[in-house]
Amino acid sequence: MKKLLLIGLFASTAALAEERIEICYNYSCARTATVVYSDEQLERVRQWMLYAPDAATERRILRGVMGKLYGWAGQQAPISADRGGNHADDDADGRMDCIDHTVSTTRLLKMLQAQGWLRFHRVADLVERKGAYGLLQHFSASIEERPGRLEEWQLSTRLLSAPQEADNELRGPRFVVDSWFHDNGQPAEVLPLEEWLEGGGGPNV
């Protein structure tokens, strides 16, 4: 049994290969750079993500993982110059607005999901909020918590009798993954969608 377990662990590690992700920058994806994550970096991410025993812990770990992924990207692309918000960047090459972050973070989250490391959440659609008087739009990537096993069983039994309600019932709570508020390489904000819509994370500037 132990031998089989070791073989399985070795196989899962050996299966890792470089990942190439397009990162947007210079506002509204005016420029893109292809960032390559090495198998060593991906193995570190895998270990961090698979450490999570539940959804809440996965969200806490995800904050640091997103910071690391952006920090590594900053070693290959000019986004190392990116500063939190839009006003601290000046006209630096590599600056990122919320569009750049939303697109790039969604791509990074989809990479984690494709690897099977996003076990308690799934990637959801981008979200939008507005400031006072409908001005200062702000966008972010988001994730959705997956139902637990018991909840899935309960929902599946109701699905048989009320399939028209399945789409609504199967949707878990939403969370934003917003890396725009902080300097490159810093942990992202991961917080409930409702809190973010009310201004959580910081202002739209």
Please outline the major beta sheet. 4 strands, antiparallel
Report, as a whole number of angstroms, the end-to-end distance.
56 Å
Q: Any idea what the shape is?
A: globular
Overall average pLDDT: 85
Helical residue percent?
Answer: 40-55%
Care to count the β-strands?
Answer: 6
Q: Which band does the percent of strand residues land in?
A: 15-25%
Using the CA coordinates, give the radius of gyration: 19 Å
Order of SSEs, N→C? Answer: HEEHHHEEHHEEH
SS-based class: alpha+beta
Number of helices: 7
Quaternary structure classification: single chain
How are the strands of the largest sheet arranged?
A: 3-4-5-6
Q: Which segments are poorly predicted (pLDDT under 50) over 5 or more consecutive residues?
A: 1-14, 152-169
Give a brief rundown of this model.
With 205 residues, the protein is of the alpha+beta class. It has helices spanning 2-14, 39-50, 55-73, 98-115, 149-161, 166-169, 193-197, and strands at residues 19-25, 31-37, 121-129, 138-145, 174-178, 189-192.
Layout of helices and strands:
Blueprint: H1 2-14, E1 19-25, E2 31-37, H2 39-50, H3 55-73, H4 98-115, E3 121-129, E4 138-145, H5 149-161, H6 166-169, E5 174-178, E6 189-192, H7 193-197
Antiparallel strand pairs: 1-2, 3-4, 4-5, 5-6
Helix pairs in contact: 2-3
Keywords, separated by commas or semicolons:
205 residues; alpha+beta; four-stranded antiparallel beta sheet; two-stranded antiparallel ribbon; 7 helices; 6 strands; 41% helix; globular
Structure, explained:
About 40% of the residues lie in helices and about 20% in strands. The protein has seven helices and six strands.
